[in-house]
Design brief:
The protein is of the alpha+beta class. The protein contains 20 helices and 10 strands. It has helices at about 1-30, 35-60, 70-75, 80-85, 90-115, 120-145, 165-195, 200-230, 245-270, 270-295, 310-335, 345-380, 385-405, 405-410, 420-425, 425-440, 450-470, 480-490, 490-515, 620-635, and strands at about 520-525, 530, 535-545, 550-560, 565-570, 570-575, 580-585, 585-590, 595-605, 610-615. β9 and β10 (about 610-615) form a beta hairpin. Mean pLDDT is about 90; it is low at about 645-658.
Amino acid sequence: MIPETGHFALILALIIAGVQSVLPLAGALRGDDAMMRTGRTSALAQFVFVAAAFACLAMAYVQSDFSVINVYENSHTAKPLLFKISGVWGNHEGSMVLWVLILTVFGAAVALFGGNIPERLRAAALSVQGWISVAFLLFILITSNPFLRIAPAPGEGRDLNPILQDVGLAIHPPMLYTGYVGFSIAFSFAVAALLLGRIDAAWARWVRPWTLAAWMFLTLGIAVGSYWAYYELGWGGWWFWDPVENASFMPWLAGTALLHSAIVMEKREALKVWTILLAILTFSLSLLGTFLVRSGVLTSVHAFASDPARGLFILMILMGFTGGALALFAWRGQTLRQGGLFSPMSREGALVFNNILLTAACGVVFVGTLYPLALEAMTGDKISVGAPFFNMTFGPLMVPLLLAVPFGPMLAWKRADAFAAAQRLAFAGGLAVIAGLALAWFQTGGPVLAALGLMLGIWLIAGAFSEIAFRVKLGSAPLAESFRRAVNLPRSSWGTAIAHAGVGMTVLGVVSVTAFQSEAVKILTPGDTLDVAGYSVSFDGAVPREGPNYRDVVGHFTVRSGGRIVAEADPAKRVYTATGRPTTEAGIITFGVSQLYITLGDPQASGGFAVTVYHKPLVTLIWLGAVVMFAGAVTSLSDRRLRVGAPQRARVQSVPAE
């Protein structure tokens, strides 16, 4: 009965989404308050029914109800409870229910906390959200129903893909989907504004918090997925330019550009056309990612489904929303005024430069990801576009962008003094140059350009510190006055500086592990030793171990430095009993922000094992930097001026009337 209840809840949610997609917009166009209010009610009701459907599916997993095909194909009675729950979204059908659930969460949040948004705009935006819900609820009910039954019910399930039975995969998809789906709010507001003909600085202020929330979850979701691939797949890499990884990276790049463009629109009422276009393209790239993962056009450990019918349905959704929004943009775009003028040497100019490079980088990733697919579809020829292409095209675009990042906050609006900004960044520049020269002097190997990468990372971190120091007049005012200024500094300014410092940390980690990673591979028998990066790794032997739903062969390693034991590791080769599928469980030892990464290979006829040991300097900064970026976004969102529903006290009366 529980699966039928969940199925019925999805049908009711579809009906309510249909109401939400029509009545509020009609009310907004006619000026009917009663019809507009149906948007809020239907958004909340739709959330309740989708949440009920999700809860029913989760209950079927927890209870191991194998009469439900989805549970039978993706669960097992011996699976730990955490992975039974995460199995709900560890498959195509369940993950789509989670996708729609998050969509309704955002719609309900706009309904509850969007009191500062004009009623007409909110009603129209909720209608657009309703269109998206209708499309994806139809997709689930027609092609991907998670509640289909099988009779007679099997006594045991097939189990979840072993590499998905991990804590990282319990966290990664919900965060990633929150980022993906969160950009639908910016899309909906953009389409609503085009329909109503109202696009101004206030629009940018209403959209910014939602965009920032989506961006920060997408940032953390990508980072968690990167770390999961790093330790779970046993390859020792943090990024592979996998097409599905790129599918999440493209909306992140476009969303970053959108955030900065919205600032210009809010502060100076400039870049209106560009900001609206970015809002449309960012969510369109999220839909593209959904298509790539579920269409079967890609083969990847990240891919969920390979059913062409499902892929065609999502492609129609992608074309419908993207094509429709762009057609509306082309129709209305000519009526939009560009807003205030500004000098190229200004904060607006710096943000435009930021946008140009970010969108160019997004274009590079787009071409590198889709060109092989287009070529194969048209000619049948298969080519591979991998890391060399992206490193040679994406990297050169990032260098000038990262050089410019600290300058932006130091420049005044409309017209600025570049020399004065450079003076304020003299400390950051000097520190970066010293660090680069020191690395070039002391390095014993690695690419020459590693020094430039190190300089960029230090430049970003020190530049973020310099921004705060300038704003609080550190060193030019009494310490008490600087402290008072720091306390009163807007949280959005703190958030910007923290996020920029996080980017610098990630750059340092990427450069260090790329340029200076050490690797050693050897067949070891018990008692043998392998040396790497000043560490001596001794193999003490391997023993079998039984888990709840798997069998391990666990190797024990002792790590010494300077003759003394500093750590131990237990990498393993694991086989899941239900499927017979193997996984590699790496042994990872962290020293400060660097790591030793040990993998146990297949047993050899000689009685030993193939062992690989990597030394990865500063590698954890890659993910710590993402956490710091997330913290910066949270800090900015805590600023009262950015929170949805918190009106600006001095500017409430200045909001333009309809």
